[in-house]
Amino acid sequence: MIFISLGFIHFYWLFGGKWGVEQVLPTIKDGKKTIKPPKIATAFVGIILISFGLLYLIKTELNIFQVPNWIITYGSWIIPSIFILRAIGDFNYVGAFKKIKNTEFAKADSKWFTPLCLIIGILGILIQIINK
Q1: Using alpha carbons only, what angle is made at residue 64 by residues 63 and 68, rounded to the nearest 5 degrees?
Q2: In the chain, which ranges are E strands?
Q3: pLDDT, mean of each 10-residue run, the chain (132 residues)
Q4: Cα–Cα distances in Å, from 120 out to 5, 9, 15, 94, 101?
Q5: I need a labelling partner for 116 at 20 to 30 A (CA). Which of 7, 48, 56, 70 fits?
Q6: What pLDDT, on a 0 to 100 scale, did the predictor assign at position 66?
Q7: Distance between CA atoms of 99 and 81, rounded to whole angstroms?
């Protein structure tokens, strides 16, 4: 549900939603955004996040979807790895070891985004280990 919710938030932003948009992109000290992702990138991230949610739904065997087993096997390790790497960060703007810490984004990242990524990563690994 977390992935599907995050995916729908990205589609909300894609179609012009403003809630939370000021806090989700890294900024430099003067408040200028470090990136300005195109709409196609926002759509891509939304699709990927929803796909991650569907992968875990398939893993629970509570669905009617059939996908090759290798997608579930590799995806179940790749997804938590992505989120643990995101939690660690780029050592500059995002993650636990960021240098820029006083921007609005950096504060939201420390309070919400990095812990969420770490939790997703740890839970994903636990799910993989438990379901072997």
Answers
A1: 100
A2: none
A3: 96 95 87 90 98 91 83 95 98 95 94 98 94 74
A4: 13, 17, 26, 16, 23
A5: 70
A6: 85
A7: 22
Q: Residue 33 pairs with which residues in a beta bridge?
A: 27
Report how far residue 88's alpha carbon sits from residue 83's, in angstroms, rounded to the nearest whole number: 9
Q: Which residues contact 66 (CB under 8 A, 6 or more apart)?
A: none
In Å, how far are 20, 63, 105, 118, 120 from 81, measured between CA atoms?
26, 25, 23, 10, 10
Q: In the prediction, which pLDDT does 28 show?
A: 85
Question: Which of 49, 58, 64, 66 has its CA nearest to residue 11?
Answer: 49
The candidate with the shortest Cα–Cα distance to 122, out of 78, 63, 81, 69, is 81
Give percent helix, percent strand, percent coil of the chain, each to the nearest 5. 65, 0, 35
Cα 25 from Cα 19, distance rounded (Å): 13
CA gap 114, 121 in Å, rounded:
10
Give residue 5's identity as a one-letter amino acid code: S
